[in-house]
Amino acid sequence: GIQVEQSPPDLILQEGANSTLRCNFSDSVNNLQWFHQNPWGQLINLFYIPSGTKQNGRLSATTVATERYSLLYISSSQTTDSGVYFCAVERYLSGGSNYKLTFGKGTLLTVNP
Amino acid sequence: EAGVTQSPTHLIKTRGQQATLRCSPISGHTSVYWYQQALGLGLQFLLWYDEGEERNRGNFPPRFSGRQFPNYSSELNVNALELEDSALYLCASSLGGYHGELFFGEGSRLTVL
Q: How many CB pairs under 8 A join A and B?
């Protein structure tokens, strides 16, 4: 199956700093999502971005599908940005039903005041 | 609009018992997915239901089963509980088929003693 690698595994920042999280995947994908897992375990949707660039406030994401990677940018980080960031990808076969959104292991972000 | 809702929030069982977890998708969504997040193991795909049928299954033993009801809600049953079944169980929904963005509920935390 498709492999998803996220880097770095851990990241510690001071409040106000910027950061870039990376997601590499091993095959072409039809779906790519970024999530933030809050301290209570819920996965919060950040971006649905199989290709292109999107921005939402201080966060933005870029997926270069042809080169099989996606980047999540966090600018002017805040303590509330702390948590685990997951990238998840899907590759489905035409006419098949073998759907599976595959998650990376995540990046644990800690933003200190 | 209500998001994905899961119940119970927490569940404590003993080895050998059965656990039932429930999920209500976002209104209009026909696909429901179940994921297991055990400590140190990341998010593992369990089951996908669409239009009342099981469409795909992850690498879990048969004692993990479920169903989807006519109103698209779903339940996950875990029989003959083992200690390693202790995990956060996350349910997600999407518009259905192979496409689209997944939205997750807050999860049900199962503890097996």
A: 55
Vertex B109, ends B100 and B81: CA angle to 5°? 105
Token code pair at residue A45: 């949707």
B102 CB near a chain A CB, below 8 Å? Answer: yes
Distance of alpha carbon B34 from alpha carbon B92, whole angstroms: 7
SS (H, E, C) B46-93: EEEEECCEEEEECCCCCCEEEEECCCCCEEEEECCCCHHHCEEEEEEE
Whether B109 sits inside 8 A of A106 (CB atoms) is no
Report the distance separating Cα A8 and Cα B70, nearest Å: 43
Interface test with A, best of B34, B102, B106 (most A CBs within 10 A): B102
* Average predicted confidence (pLDDT) for chain B: 93
Task: Measure the CA–CA gap between A88 and A82, rounded to whole angstroms.
Answer: 19
Q: Which residues of B touch A97 (CB under 8 A)?
A: 55-56, 98
pLDDT in tens, B70-107: 999 999 999 999 999 999 999 999 987 655 789 999 99
Closest partner residue to B107 (CB to CB) among A31, A41, A103 is: A41
- Contact at 8 Å (CB) between A33 and A47? yes
Residue A44: closest C-alpha in chain B:
B104
